[in-house]
Amino acid sequence: MDVLYTAGIRFAEVLQSGPPWLEKFWISVTSLADPKCIFTICFPLGYFLDRKVGVSVLWIGLVSEWLNVVLKWFLFGERPFWWVHESGLASRELILLHQFPVSCETGPGDPSGHCMITGAALWPLVTALTALASRHSRSLLVKLTPFCTYALLLLAVGLSRVFVLAHFPHQVVSGILAGAALGWGLQDRTPVARSAGFFMAAAVALLLGSLGLHSLLMATGIDIDW
């Protein structure tokens, strides 16, 4: 893994060596793609377009947020900002990296939450926009625009997370793949007909489940809060 981590550090160095204006761009992308935006921006937008789409965004965002935490507990994953010092690489080699206010994230890093949750929750919105475009245009370019935008957005989010040293490249890739797969798999399984009480109960169940799993792992000697 050290070879993979070192390669990720070198890739981050290349990203950070770009023109100064790119720094503001990457920081803006990583801020705007915060998973909170799924609930504060994407859900209302999806609900405005279609109730089923909005509920799908909310449901998939909820499940993917929970699953991301659980996956991180099992996959662990170092954070670049911390690993470069803890591994001793910074003392052995010249590392040209910059720290940002959003660099010092704690907790396991694999898979990337920004990429996974955004990729999953945006899937129903993208497919709805694709269907809408297909009804109003025969142009293949127009039909593909939503998914192309989706792919470019996830690529930008992933690169921004590497740029600010929050994740290694392989953690970003795993987040994107997991998010897209989760969005595709859950889209047709959204409990649209359920009441608001069901979603509140589901949220409480997921919360209690994660707390129970946390306690179980700690009891077995696995320090997931390392």
UniProtKB/TrEMBL annotation:
GO (cellular component) term, any one: endoplasmic reticulum membrane
EC number(s) recorded for this UniProt protein: 3.1.3.9
Subcellular location: Endoplasmic reticulum membrane
Phosphatidic acid phosphatase type 2/haloperoxidase domain: residues covered: 53-187
Alphabetic keyword roster: Endoplasmic reticulum, Gluconeogenesis, Hydrolase, Membrane, Transmembrane, Transmembrane helix
Keyword flag Endoplasmic reticulum: yes
Regions that span the bilayer: 56-76, 116-133, 140-162, 168-186, 198-222
Single biological process term from Gene Ontology: glucose 6-phosphate metabolic process
Statement: the UniProt record of this protein carries the keyword Transmembrane helix: yes
Pathway: Carbohydrate biosynthesis; gluconeogenesis
UniProt-listed InterPro entries: PAP2/HPO, PAP2/HPO_sf
Pfam family for this entry, one: PAP2
Chief location of this protein within or outside the cell: endoplasmic reticulum
Record GO terms (molecular function): glucose-6-phosphatase activity
Bilayer topology term: Multi-pass membrane protein
Similarity comment: Belongs to the glucose-6-phosphatase family.
Annotated protein name in UniProt: Glucose-6-phosphatase 3
UniProt organism field: Syrrhaptes paradoxus (Pallas's sandgrouse)
